[in-house]
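seq as requested:
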Amino acid sequence: MVAAPRLAALVEQFLGGPLPVRLRAWDGSEAGPPDGPVIVVRHRRALRRLLFRPGELGLARAWVSGEIDVEGDLYEVLDRVTWLLGERPQVGTGRLLAAARDLLALSRAVPVPPPVPNEEVPRRSGPLHSLRRDRQAISHHYDVGNDFYELVLGPSMVYSCAVWSPETESLTDAQTAKLDLICRKLALRDGQRLLDVGCGWGSLVLHAARHYGVSAVGITLSEEQAAYARERVAKEGLEDRVEIRVQDYRETADGPYDAISSVGMAEHVGAARYREYATRLFGLLRPGGRLLNHQIARRPIPGREKSYRVDPFIDAYVFPDGELAPVGSTIGQLERVGFEVRDAESLREHYALTLRQWVRNLEENWAQAVRLTSPGRARVWRLYMAASALSFERGRIGVNQILAVRATESGASGLPLRPRAWTEQS
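struct tokens:
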């Protein structure tokens, strides 16, 4: 029973210091500090995955397959081994070859495993961010069962960060506060037309129609989201004021709208298409209308601004073809097509709180989540949400609500002289 000490020595060689967590190997051996969480390597195949795909993707495949697990606090493990997720020190070629030989010896004659569970790998075809490929990417992430999303997201069925305060009592309350904040920023009022780009399960358009009297159109590429949203609209008797379409933003041409919201959708657009996205929304908005763009942003690393690459785990298992941009780049793109950006509000800490609640919902209903999807999909979600919560908490990524206007020819914006007037509910 020597696998864990050998594996621990290999890890410490990379770290240049002691192992940050305890290891338990498939042969029952253990190594590392006696206190704190434990990483359990259940099968030698996990090592073969690391040989085949070194770094984050190999680890993710082992996690999704159940060959690596955690006993104890998952957040603490992720925090302690951040280097395994892309921040480890640079290692020379000689040391890498030595590590590969050691991993090969530990894994013995176990065949190279397939890079799946098959059902968790997105099917992609066609040019990047083409209409067809974007539909495939959206379907992979969102068409996994509305019952599963109800379990994770809770009754609000809102899949973007909530807005919290010290007085907030529940996730539902925090999501309602976020929906209302968006409506106030857009200055919605009775009789206006609202377009919600990437409407999800319809929560925002329903809130806007119910409480602000607008006529709303929600568009999504997810068939399952659209079906669920339409049922909600019918149940509330709002068919005369809310329309749900399965439609791409590039296919929407029935403007002008008085206001446009895009909440958690622009991350799917991609850098190559972002100018087209901004131009399309500008053209759909009437002069004097407002855009609320709610979007996750990456923090650029000084000196490495041009070295950005899509996170391999997220791309392979979670959001195929998704891309993050710095908030400054997003503001610049919106301004280039004619928008006047009037406000940008960071909600970074709010997203961390939201993700932790989603993880809690998943963990408390784990058996049902596995039943509704698959063991692999449930493990994907647990890892991605927990790691994302830490990324928001540590400031590696952020999320921002950008309010922009299409000013009139006279330059009138329609905004109040006092900034942030929408923070006060009327």
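The chain has a mean pLDDT of 89.
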